[in-house]
Known about the structure:
- This protein is α+β, with helices and mostly antiparallel strands.
- The protein folds into 2 domains: 11-214 and 330-412, Zn peptidases (Aminopeptidase); 215-328, Alpha-Beta Plaits.
- Helix content is 35%, strand content 22%.
- It is built from 12 helices and 16 strands.
- Strands 1, 2, 3, 4, 5, 6, 14, 15 and 16 form a 9-stranded mixed β-sheet that branches. Strands 7, 9, 10, 12 and 13 form a 5-stranded antiparallel β-sheet that branches.
- Helix 3 links the parallel strand 3 (81-86) and strand 4.
- It is elongated, with a radius of gyration of 23 Å.
- 50% of the residues are buried.
- The structure holds (2S)-amino(hydroxy)ethanoic acid and manganese (II) ion (MN) (2 copies).
- (2S)-amino(hydroxy)ethanoic acid binds next to loops.
Amino acid sequence: MSEQQSLRVDGQRLWDSIMALAEIGPGQHGGSCRLALTDEDREGRDLFVRWCKDINCSIEIDDMGNIFARREGRDNSLAPVVAGSHLDTQPHGGKFDGIYGVLAALEVLRTLSDNDITTEAPLEAVVWTNEEGSRFAPAMIASGVYAGLFEKEYAWSRADSEGKTIGDELKRIGYMGDVSCSQHAIGALLEAHIEQGPILEAQQNQVGVVIGGQGQKWFDLRLRGQDSHAGSTPMPGRRDALVAAAEIISMVRTLALDFAPHAVATVGEMSVQPNSRNTIPGEVFLTIDIRNPDEAELSRMASVLRACVIDCVDKNGVECDLDEIWDKPPVKFHADCIAAVENATRDLGYSHQQIVSGAGHDACQVCLVAPTSMIFVPCAGGLSHNEAESAEPADLEAGCNVLLHAMLNLADRRPA
Ligand code: HGY
Ligand code: MN
Ligand code: MN
């Protein structure tokens, strides 16, 4: 085995870095809360940038706040091999979703720095802005701008529930870079991530070789009935927006079950106006997230959803605006990157399987413009988007070793 083949990352340093970053924006129950472009997100970004500068990486920030930390290669005319993920979290996020992929990429650069190894092509670690889509919808918006899926002005204009926009918040936290997003060359992208589902754990595999991601559609639904008195308004003729919402929420669940076994559907966000216990709700806003690995099935789900919503609002005498705010078709990753991940996993002797991602990831956007794949590791019970999210240090280290050797393979292959 060559010296390079015997190279391994420092699993303890990786774990310690994940725990150190988790000190920033801690949740109430042991997880993390660093919503995109908040002060906590800025603090996490600043720490990552400091760590990259400690190993002499150069830093580039584009005008979507994406951060690229670069380790020069022997031939810097080659497009870099890039690895990374996101640092923003869900409101009740875990310590590993996104953060693992960013810090695994940093650990690869640290390992090469420790061993004074220079690759043919340059290597970079990337942090993508607003992957979660929780504060600003839709999700994966900055990698989406990079991939040409969203206009920058649209992305900058996206506002949170208080009307603060991505553009203003990027400037406020000092991450509105002067480089245009999508101008940055990427020769290949790899993203390490916890699976966020139960498959690897159930199959007792340590690594998932990710071959693609399922499709998803996001909808905003506004229901308008009529505020009126809870005591003196007869039941017949009420225009109760919350009753209509309740029927629709139940229908969304039925929709996924009707498209079993692969479909999922979720109502995750809802607000009720005037939200007073003795006034019939006149207005309800809710979000609908539907997903399916099959594009035709996903379209059919959307058609059934629209028809059921119309039927439900008619029955309840309310009006509605149902807006599809995001359409993300299923994606397949690049054969060369999948092979680099699979070969590295096999050479390292880790149990593994191929897998399609149920969760969305920045890699599912960038794969449209650059060769891409992902590396999954198990998380306990498949639980994620929950503060109790957890992963085994040995699995995180294994995934990071796969990332190291897959990146070396991709960076040292001389162009054909
Ligand atoms: O929604 C997703 O799948 C990702 O967590 N943003
Ligand atoms: Mn993620
Ligand atoms: Mn997530």
